[in-house]
Design a protein that fits this description.
Elements (H helix, E strand, L loop, with lengths): L3 H11 L3 H14 L1 H16 L4 E6 L5 H9 L3 E7 L2 H11 L8 E5 L11 E7 L8 H11 E12 L26 H11 L2 E8 L2 H20 L7 H20 L8 E7 L2
Helix pairs in contact: 3-9, 6-7, 8-9
Length: about 270
């Protein structure tokens, strides 16, 4: 299945309307379990700071995490980068019309080439690393870009069924993924080799989260890959399934999982 064409279609649909884009961000915040986990860790990091941070949203996509961070943290200055120029242009146009335009900058950038050395207190990378072959180079770039005591936060699929791959004969649910997921040991060793310390990795998308993902993402994406005509019935589909998905998300974000199809990683530059 292909996810990027659907993202591009969504971007075009909401590009001209402030209301529609804000509504989409709110919907994604509610719908996507990874957003629940990311919000939780960002809230904790916000409390630890003096109110001021220089932040890199590394792989900003539609801009929903940049929006969340700018809206919730008035002292944060955010550079949001993505390799897709269409996403960057749409986000630039939207944020230019918001109160956060003086604190948010968007730029088309390849993370394997980024060189903003010693600039950021926080780097956020959500569902990005599974798309990048040369991940070790990106981890090293992240380390160089962070200031001392800076924090890296990563959300990515695990090797325990991430990308909906459960054995060696299955293919990733998302065609754009270059790896099906990381093991805890794999991503920890790569971050250590890049220079990071105080690395914490925990599973997300345990049993409740995996069911929520199927209801909220897998089945809708399958329908839309079959035909975009399913955009018409998606509102009704989500009216039926969203309440259950939200309950499952609440359970997932408040549980400690022995295994899960996602990983949430924090690492420090000491």
């Amino acid at each position: 299945m292909q996810y990027e064409p659907i993202k591009k279609s969504l971007g075009k649909f909401i590009s001209g309307s402030l209301f529609m884009r804000k509504a989409l961000y709110l919907f994604l915040d509610i719908l996507l379990l990874r957003s629940w986990h990311v919000r939780k860790v960002l809230k904790k990091l916000s409390k630890e700071s003096d109110g001021k941070k220089f932040v890199l949203d590394a792989g900003s996509g539609l801009g929903q995490y940049t929006w969340r961070m700018a809206k919730s943290n008035h002292g944060w200055r955010i550079k949001a980068v993505d390799i897709d120029d269409d996403h960057v242009k749409d986000c630039k146009n939207f944020f230019a019309k918001t109160p956060y335009s003086n604190r948010v900058q968007f730029e088309t950038t390849d993370l394997t080439l980024i060189d903003d050395n010693d600039k950021y207190d926080l780097i956020l990378s959500v569902d990005v690393m599974e798309h990048i072959s040369d991940d070790i180079r990106v981890f090293r770039n992240f380390y160089k870009c962070l200031r001392m005591n800076g924090c890296l936060v990563i959300s990515t699929p695990s090797d325990k069924g991430g990308s909906d791959v459960h054995d060696e004969n299955e293919k990733s649910f998302i065609d754009e993924h270059v790896r099906d997921g990381y093991s805890i040991n794999d991503i920890t060793s790569k971050l250590l080799s890049a220079g990071f310390s105080s690395i914490e990795v925990r599973y997300t998308y345990g049993r409740p989260g995996s069911l929520s993902w199927k209801l909220s993402m897998k089945y809708p994406v399958m329908m839309l890959n079959a035909s975009y005509i399913f955009f018409i019935i998606l509102p009704l589909y989500y009216i039926i399934t969203l309440p259950l998905s939200m309950v499952l998300n609440i359970f997932d974000v408040n549980m400690v999982h022995d295994s899960g199809t996602g990983l949430l990683v924090t690492a420090r530059k000491k």
